[in-house]
Amino acid sequence: MGIATRDSLRDWLQAPGSLSRRLARLGQCFDVQVLRQGVAPFRALERAALGLPPRGLTVVREVILRVDGQPLVWARSAVHQRATTGPWRALKGLGSRPLAHLLYDDDRIRRSELQPRRLSRHGHTRRHAARQWQAATGQAMSPQMLWSRHSVFSRGGALLRVMELFAPELVRQRPGRPKH
């Protein structure tokens, strides 16, 4: 397969609604593998997206989304630590359930536009994701896995940023419409 380009992943990068629900429609078994959930320092892009000060802590959740055992998406969500005692407190007890359970079943939550982004092959986020992918799957992350999207969800004035990095295997799949 050739390099996964923005055009070849366009449907996934622009698909509205729940990514988890769209992925679940691709196979028999949809799985969320939690790689890490805990407190971490702000990253520049997260800080900017969440409108946060230069210093502080976020609560980060990093996962791999799998369909029928095949890893297809690496995702990272980040929220200011204070928000996990307020509007985003349910994030703490989410476990291996999809984040979609919090984001799409509450009419008070609003989502920003989806922002596609090509990661630098040697940038911090890509390297971090590749290390986690290798540890979790036993396989190296495809060098073609460069396209991501991010958006910001708002609830009660508190913001949550979600970033999803797509495996090139999704090029062969259509996102379809999820059941809400």
Number-wise, the strands total: 7
Helix coverage percent: 10-25%
Overall geometric form: globular
Poorly predicted regions are: none
What's the CATH class label? Answer: Alpha Beta
**What's the number of helices?**
5
Second rung of CATH, namely the architecture: 3-Layer(aba) Sandwich
What would you call the structural class?
Answer: alpha+beta
CATH topology: the name is: Chorismate lyase
Number of domains: 1
What is the gyration radius calculated from CA atoms?
15 Å
Element-level helix/strand string: HHEHEEHEEHEE
- The name of the CATH superfamily reads Chorismate lyase-like
- The termini sit apart by 33 Å
Describe this structure in words.
This protein has a single domain, classed as Chorismate lyase-like (Chorismate lyase, 3-Layer(aba) Sandwich). The chain starts with 9 loop residues before the first helix and ends in a 14-residue tail after the last strand. The mean pLDDT is 89. Strands 1, 2, 3, 4, 5, 6 and 7 form a seven-stranded antiparallel β-sheet that branches. It has helices at 10-14, 19-24, 44-50, 100-103, 124-137, and strands at residues 30-41, 57-67, 70-80, 110-111, 115-118, 147-155, 158-166. The chain is globular, with a radius of gyration of 15 Å. With 180 residues, the protein is an alpha+beta fold. The longest helix has 14 residues, at 124-137. The chain has five helices and seven strands; from the N terminus they run ααβαββαββαββ. Helix content is 20%, strand content 32%. Substrate binds at residues 61, 99, 164. This is Probable chorismate pyruvate-lyase. Pathway: Cofactor biosynthesis; ubiquinone biosynthesis. It comes from Pelomonas cellulosilytica. Pfam families: Chor_lyase (PF04345).
